Amino acid sequence: MARSPTDVARKIFLIATEESGDRLGAGLMKVLRQRLGDAVAFEGVGGRAMAREGLSSLFPIEELSIMGLAAVVRQLPKLLRLIRQTAEAVTDASVDMLVIIDSPDFTHRVARRVRGRDPSIPIVDYVSPTVWAWRPGRARAMRGYVDHVLALLPFEPEAYRRLNGPPCSYVGHPLIEQIDRLRPNAEEQARRNGSPPILLLLPGSRRSEIAHHLGVFGAALDRLRSQGAAFEVMLPTMPHLEAAVLAGVANWPVVPTIVVGEAEKRAAFRIAHAALAKSGTVTLELALSGVPMVTAYRLGAAEAFVLRRAIKVNTVILANLVLGKEVIPEFLQENCTPEKLAQALSELLADSAMRRSQLEAFATLDAIMSSGNASPSVRAADIVLAMMRKGRRAGRAADL
């Protein structure tokens, strides 16, 4: 049976180039399919999770796994070609909506080209770039090519209002859907409170971060043990980083237990008493898990020089930013020393004021990060559907 004009499927183009964005895209696609059934069709760029929801990716996202300035320079012609190819695919498909997901260095360049080629296509940005931390001028610039921002962090809508950016709505962080996997049951809580206490080490998810952090982390543990502290060390990592981690800890006097994979990482979080972690999303994971922490970060000298002049916030710890106060200590660059890390960790392993203040603050996170009765994927889908109901943007070029 032929479709009537009102039955024509809505076509949504999604772009996600990293694993975390791929998971967000898959969640959004699943809800949209539940709402619209056969009346929605997806095209775009994505990974395995989005493929399971029916997306045939324009190209494998592994083509964009380029690390380091020198590698980016060598691959620049390829990157520019993929940006052009993706933008042309969006406009050639005459889609009803473009959803760009994280990875702003790629997705925002595509969005700007799409807006120039066909200004009528609505564009939603799922995951805000860190305009509140550095390069705040991006927020105002985004008004030219983004119609709505779906924020993962509760303070971001106010940041966009302050910076005169596009409309921004908090939809919730995907971590709030994983609370049950982050928090201990009674048996795990008993181990968390048991002896010797388990100390988590989280040096990072990139090889460069592991290289920068493992040495100073190991020296801090050695110093802590020499001061008489008793503890058991667990170091979660992922399969592709296991060899680098094993090589990095091979000569440590304090030998950590290496656990590999996401499920094992979550299990370690549920029994940990304290953590030493590099700054990033992992600080929010630990806070939601109720694990007090000391945070650290080291960069190369050139990168540190640039970032110090660019960052516009008082703390780089994501959990501190969400909480609105600096309860988690951070040791950056020259302050990231074995002596300072060991001293802060010794306080966390004890029933100290620092430990108690962190736990009290973490207890408020559920209320701060609540997205109501709907999951982040549902809230994101609601906004995408509302924008599609409004139809295409005014101002389509006359010759398109």
Identify low-pLDDT runs: 1-7, 395-400
The N- and C-terminal alpha carbons lie at a distance of: 30 Å
Shape: elongated
- Computed Rg: 23 Å
Provide the helix percentage: 40-55%
CATH H level of the largest domain: which superfamily?
Answer: Glycogen Phosphorylase B
Tally of contiguous helical segments: 19
- Beta-strand portion reads 5-15%
Strand arrangement within the widest β-sheet reads 2-1-3-4-5-6
Instruction: Provide the CATH top-level class of the largest domain.
Output: Alpha Beta
Number of strands: 12
What does this structure look like?
- The structure is a single chain.
- With 400 residues, this protein is of the alpha/beta class.
- It has two domains: 5-172 and 372-390, Rossmann fold, CATH 3.40.50; 178-368, Glycogen Phosphorylase B (Rossmann fold).
- Helices cover 47% and strands 14% of the residues.
- The chain has 19 helices and twelve strands.
- The protein has helices spanning 19-36, 48-52, 69-74, 76-92, 104-117, 137-142, 156-162, 179-182, 186-192, 207-226, 242-249, 262-271, 281-289, 301-310, 318-323, 338-349, 353-362, 365-369, 376-390, and strands at residues 10-16, 40-45, 97-101, 123-126, 148-151, 168-170, 198-202, 232-237, 257-260, 274-278, 293-297, 330-332.
- The strands form two sheets. Strands 2-1-3-4-5-6 form a six-stranded parallel β-sheet, with helices on both faces. A six-stranded parallel β-sheet has the order 9-8-7-10-11-12, with helices on both faces.
- Strand 10 (274-278), helix 13 and strand 11 form a beta-alpha-beta unit.
- Helix 1 crosses helix 19 (376-390) and helix 10 crosses helix 16.
- The longest helix has 20 residues, at 207-226.
- The protein is elongated.
- The two termini are 30 Å apart.
- The model is unreliable at 1-7 and 395-400 (pLDDT under 50).
